[in-house]
Specification:
The chain has 216 residues and is mainly alpha-helical. The chain is built from three helices and no strands. One of its GO terms (cellular component) is photoreceptor connecting cilium.
């Protein structure tokens, strides 16, 4: 957890720790409020016991007045009963105080455990969110790089295909040019042949005309 925390930015760690301290302080304030309520209940119970003790003291005084009129045996029995009652009340008061202190200690220990657990949970959630954000960012970079490499491969493949197509079309063009030159050459040869044939025909007509004129 400490290693993960060192990866986070300093400001992020400060904000997280500040929020967690505030949350912990709110838990402590809530616990103090509960402690105050328990103390008030305890004070009310102590006041009740004090009232009962005052009533018992008043009863004791009444008994003392009435005991003075009775024999020593009755006085001894009443005194012992009152002492036992006082001891019983004192024991009950001490037990109540001990029980309240024990409950308060257990509540405080439980509150501290809950606060620590919530603190660790919140911190782990923050760290997990930060780690996940970093992982997603790295994943996006990796995907973008893969897409870029794929696009470059496609561009190279298209370039090769177009170059091959251009070479093929260039060869076809050269063949077409050669064919055109051949056709031009054949045309010129044909025209020369036609001219010669025409000239031979003209010469033959001239000779025939001359022969006819000479015969006449």
């Amino acid at each position: 957890l400490a290693n993960c925390t060192t990866v986070l930015p300093l400001t992020f760690q400060t904000n997280v720790l500040t929020e967690l301290r505030k949350w912990k302080l709110s838990l402590i304030e809530h616990h103090k409020l509960q402690m105050r309520q328990e103390k008030e209940k305890h004070a009310a119970h102590v006041r009740q016991l004090s009232n009962e003790m005052e009533n018992l003291k008043e009863l004791l005084r009444t008994y003392e007045v009435s005991i003075g009129r009775k024999d020593e045996v009755v006085i001894t029995n009443l005194t012992q009963a009152l002492e036992r009652q006082k001891e019983r009340l004192e024991l009950m008061r001490n037990f109540t105080l001990w029980r309240i202190q024990h409950v308060q200690a257990k509540q405080e220990e439980y509150a501290n455990r809950v606060a620590d657990r919530q603190f660790r949970t919140a911190l782990m959630k923050k760290v997990w969110a930060a780690w996940r954000a970093l992982s997603e960012e790295k994943w996006k970079e990796k995907v973008a790089k893969a897409c870029q490499l794929r696009a470059e491969d496609v561009c190279v493949q298209l370039t090769n295909d177009y170059e091959a197509k251009i070479a093929e079309l260039t060869a076809t063009l050269e063949q077409t040019k050669a064919e055109i030159l051949r056709l031009h050459s054949e045309r010129e040869h044909y025209e020369d042949t036609m001219k010669k044939a025409f000239m031979r025909g003209v010469c033959a007509l001239n000779l025939e005309a001359m022969t006819m004129f000479q015969g006449k």
